Amino acid sequence: MIEATNLKPGATFQISGKPYKVLKYFHQKLGRGGANVRVSVRNLTTGGLEEKTFKSDHKVEEITTVKKPLQFLYRDGPNVVFMDSKNYEQIDISADIIGNELAYIKEGKTVNVLFWSFGDIQGKEDVPLSIEIPIKVTLKVVDTPPGVKGDSATNMYKPAKLENGLQVKVPLFVNKGDLVVVDTRSGEYVERARE
What we know:
The protein contains 1 helix and 16 strands. The chain is mainly β. The strands form 3 sheets. Strands 1-6-2-3-4-5 form a 6-stranded antiparallel beta sheet, with no helix packed on it. Strands 9-8-7-10-11 form a 5-stranded antiparallel beta sheet. β7 (64-76) and β8 (79-84) form a beta hairpin. The protein is flat, with a radius of gyration of 22 Å.
């Protein structure tokens, strides 16, 4: 158990079986009464942000999280199959946990997967919570209409289909076969990639 006053940024804990990670910590002294601890947390299963308030002497159950680098192999129905390069063990993770981030992972690429670790407890396996992907990825344009010569000076955009199936708006000078950098947080074009 961990006291609420020790819920500093980066600490992980659970309430009602749901894992959380502390992002911000605020300690409030309330006159003659006791103090309160208010934390901004991220729900590690849904990714949602929440505010929690505890009395300073309240205790929560601490959890251990572990990041493992895993290689993306393929999607298999409702699951995504990864491989641990250390022991070549295949790990199935629900596509619901990965969500929209799956579109930005190419086969064979390695990503960090965050697991809720139970250590050496018998019969308990680590539970995957989320994946970490880069903020920017480089993808190939597989289809886009040709740009009109002379329109490159203005700030005009056209639709483009990328190798991962996503549609993005790109400047008129981008052509089929070009590599572009995409922001994975917004899914928007950032720049043409340097080859």
